[in-house]
Design brief:
142 residues, alpha/beta, CBS-domain, three-stranded mixed sheet, 6 strands, 23% strand, globular
């Protein structure tokens, strides 16, 4: 793996939108639309506990017909993180290994942003191969 010289912190999204774990799927959908984001970090008792994505919303919640399903019931709780000073190629590698589309970015143990496959590919298209090489059999959504 060759370093790009580009740090995750230089290209992450710093607009972090949260939602309470006891919010409904409809409330989550409205928030995703209002802020034009692909994911929401889920907060419970003032602590980030998980993440939901647009795909989670459709596949895990709305497809069941239960519009009042709580975010807590369909969020992903295994937040894969990366430090803001890590190289962009490391982020691409982690996404490929874990078959995910987003990483939570931290600095000194605090969440400071989110980086997505789309962010990486728009900055360094050559990293697409690094992301996709482990994606042969399905993927997770966050």
């Amino acid at each position: 793996m060759v370093d790009t010289g580009i740090k995750v912190g230089d290209c992450m999204k710093t607009k972090i939108i949260t939602i309470k774990a006891d919010s409904t799927a409809v409330e989550a959908a409205k928030k995703i639309k209002e802020f034009n984001v692909g994911s929401l970090l889920v907060e419970k008792n003032g602590v980030i506990q998980g993440i939901i994505t647009e795909k989670d919303l459709v596949v895990k919640s709305l497809s069941t017909g239960d519009l009042n399903m709580k975010v807590n019931d369909f969020m992903s709780t295994n937040l894969i993180q990366i430090q803001d000073d890590a190289d962009l190629s490391e982020a691409a590698k982690i996404m490929g290994e874990h078959k995910i589309k987003r990483l939570v970015v931290t600095h000194a143990g605090k969440i400071v942003g989110i980086i997505s496959q789309k962010d990486i590919i728009s900055i360094s298209p050559s990293l697409y191969d690094l992301i996709s090489q482990n994606w042969k059999s399905g993927f997770k959504t966050f």
